[in-house]
Design goal:
The protein is mostly beta strands. It has helices spanning 6-16, 37-42, 391-396, 410-413, and strands at 34-35, 47-52, 56-59, 64-69, 72-78, 81-82, 87-89, 92-97, 113-115, 145-157, 164-175, 185-195, 208-211, 216-218, 228-237, 248-258, 261-270, 281-283, 289-290, 300-301, 307-314, 317-325, 332-338, 349-353, 363-371, 379-388, 404-409. The strands form 6 sheets. Strands 14, 15, 16, 17, 18, 19 and 20 form a 7-stranded antiparallel beta sheet that branches. The protein has a 4-stranded antiparallel beta sheet with strand order 1-27-26-25. Strands 2, 5, 6 and 7 form a 4-stranded antiparallel beta sheet that branches. A hairpin with a 6-residue loop joins strand 22 and strand 23 (332-338). The longest helix is centred in the first third of the chain and has 11 residues, at 6-16. The N and C termini lie far apart (51 Å). Residues 1-25 have low confidence and may be disordered.
């Protein structure tokens, strides 16, 4: 079935199969972390867009905030259940106004606009971003490709210096003929979408999509014992010291050297020419930049396939915070801190233990991310997702499978 609900479950399970750090001693969650009911209400909806994962936010710089989602439910919720006809598309976006004087204030839910693609020939909704059609290629369910939003995105200047443009990152996914059941897919690479006409209404945006070279599975080189898996754009930001015309995007990725070896890797690229991949520079040994992505050195180990890396203010200093979920179906949300993105990064610190997962043995949590631009002074707004291994549970329980929000004191992130 095209755009089958299986996709959401399969990806959720995949990101939790990333290398773990579950050997860490159990910590008590921080007691000052609290759910944010106002933000939770923004994405608790019963018509149209009714739930999604990934949930990355981008400050558009003009009084609006963009949200990037992966697999998304479209349809109706009635009596607390997904009504017949509900459908899943592979990605959607949402835009809402932001109070510039107090960006942490959640928007009125009625002001949030959601976007996805047109109806297909079978009258089903489609994804907001779909791969371009290849001439002469007959698409089938076996060879179909699609995009899942990573949640990473930034706004930068255009190459001519006139105007701004949106840069958003996506996983490139296709069916795996060797997979079974919900595992019949493979993430084969990373792509970025560039929208030059950002000032136009979103329904008129014209994304240009570029496949990032040397991503997905990369054959082993002389120095590697096994093939690598490289993905880029899981988080992205423009560091404060490179704003304006000199803006360089910090692009975060993962380097997977085995089933228990997933690490953070970093690259930098000019915001105005990020689609020219020869301008990317990868952080290598001793922070020396390299033009070769495979030279990117591991910055921190024990990563998962969704996380955020952001700058926050702490004690008058600009510090960096990495937010991620615990691998291997763990309940916890972790924070790591550093004085610069190249590290050294602290050991993971437990900031929250997700309570929803104890209500049903099928439930698990994933996709924790920070949203610094939407945070109160002295806090970090954090989202996470709860999903179920049983699709029936996702249909019957509509309190799960949409972003849930937490307010975390930044002092607690640093163990103060």
């Amino acid at each position: 079935m095209r755009n089958s609900p299986v996709n959401a479950l399969a990806f959720a399970l995949t990101i939790l199969s990333a290398p773990g750090i579950s050997h860490l001693r159990a910590e008590e969650p921080l007691t000052r972390v609290a759910p944010d009911a106002g933000w939770n209400a923004v994405f608790d909806r019963t018509d149209g867009w009714t739930g999604a994962d990934a949930a990355g936010s981008v400050d558009l710089g003009d009084g609006r905030t963009l949200w990037l989602f992966a697999d998304t439910w479209i349809g109706k919720i009635r009596d607390g259940k997904r009504a017949p006809g509900a459908w899943i598309v592979n990605n959607t976006i949402a835009i809402h106004p932001t109070d510039k004087s107090a960006p942490w204030r959640p928007p009125d839910p009625h002001t949030v606009q959601f976007y996805w693609g047109p109806l297909d020939k079978e009258k089903h909704p489609t994804a907001w971003l779909v791969p371009p059609t290849t001439p002469g290629r007959v698409e089938s369910e076996e060879n179909r490709e699609w995009y899942w939003a990573t949640g990473g995105g930034v706004v930068g200047s255009r190459e001519n210096g006139k105007g701004r443009r949106l840069i958003a990152f996506f996983f490139r996914v296709r069916r795996d003929p060797h997979g079974k059941g919900v595992w019949n897919f493979a993430i084969v690479g990373s792509s970025l979408a560039v929208i030059d006409n950002l000032s136009d209404p979103p329904e008129h945006w014209r994304p240009r999509v570029f496949d990032i070279p040397k991503t997905g599975r990369i054959e082993a080189s002389a120095g590697d014992r096994i093939p690598l898996e490289m993905l880029w754009g899981l988080s992205a930001c423009v560091p404060r010291d490179t704003a304006g015309a000199a803006a360089r995007v910090l692009v975060c990725g993962t380097r997977k050297g085995g089933p228990f070896d997933m690490s953070l890797v970093l690259a930098r690229a000019p915001a105005d020419s990020i689609e020219r991949f020869d301008t990317w520079r990868f952080v290598g040994a001793s922070d020396a930049p390299s033009s070769q992505s495979t030279a990117a050195r591991p910055i921190a180990k024990g990563l998962v396939s969704e996380f955020s890396v952001e700058q926050v203010d702490q004690g008058g200093r600009s510090m960096w915070v990495l937010i991620q979920s615990e691998p291997f179906f763990g309940r916890r949300i972790f924070a790591r801190t550093a004085s610069r993105p190249e590290g050294p990064w602290s050991a993971p610190r437990t900031i929250y233990s997700v309570p929803e997962v104890v209500t049903n043995r099928s439930y698990f949590t994933y996709a924790a991310k920070g949203h610094a631009r939407l945070s109160r002074p002295g806090e970090l707004l954090v989202t996470y997702l709860v999903n179920a291994q049983s699709l029936g549970d996702v249909v019957r329980d509509t309190t799960i499978y949409h972003p849930k929000f937490l307010r975390v004191p930044t002092a607690d992130l640093f163990g103060k």
